[in-house]
């Protein structure tokens, strides 16, 4: 799985937001795809690299699918537990 955590860090370090990438000439839905690690074609990656003046390796990295899926499963489990606890809290507070 190709992930764009490095791109997120570059944007943060430069006080930019995901939507700032639209200034690179990409469509408005592309920043959301980057933030969700969706597949990108090389033309889009090229535009972002040109805009930020970086190499592709500076904005993305490869993580084995099994490792990526395991991490996401753990995150989903934790988010589910949080939702259940928040619902229980509201119930106890009488809301």
List keywords for this structure.
single chain, 95 residues, mainly alpha, two-stranded antiparallel sheet, 4 helices, 2 strands
Report on the structure:
This protein is mostly helical. 58% of the residues lie in helices and 4% in strands. It has 4 helices and 2 strands. Strands 1-2 form a two-stranded antiparallel sheet. The longest helix has 29 residues, at 65-93. The model has no long low-confidence stretch (mean pLDDT 91).
State the major sheet.
2 strands, antiparallel
The rounded distance between the terminal residues' Cα atoms is 42 Å
Poorly predicted runs: none
Q: Share of helix among residues? A: 55-70%
Per DSSP E runs of 2 or more residues, the count of β-strands stands at 2
User: Which structural category fits the helices and strands?
Assistant: mainly alpha
Give the overall shape, derived from the CA principal axes.
elongated
Radius of gyration from CA coordinates: 17 Å
Q: Give me the number of helical elements.
A: 4
The strand line-up of the biggest sheet is: 1-2
Average pLDDT metric: 91
- Approximately how much beta-strand content do the residues carry? under 5%
């Amino acid at each position: 799985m190709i992930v764009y955590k490095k791109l997120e860090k570059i944007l943060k370090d430069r006080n930019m937001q995901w939507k700032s990438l639209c200034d690179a000439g990409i469509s408005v839905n592309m920043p959301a795809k980057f933030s969700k690690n969706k597949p990108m074609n090389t033309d889009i990656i090229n535009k972002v690299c040109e805009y930020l003046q970086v190499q592709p390796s500076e904005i993305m990295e490869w993580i084995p699918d099994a490792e990526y899926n395991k991490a996401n499963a753990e995150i989903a489990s934790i988010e589910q537990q949080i939702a259940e606890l928040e619902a229980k809290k509201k119930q106890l507070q009488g809301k």
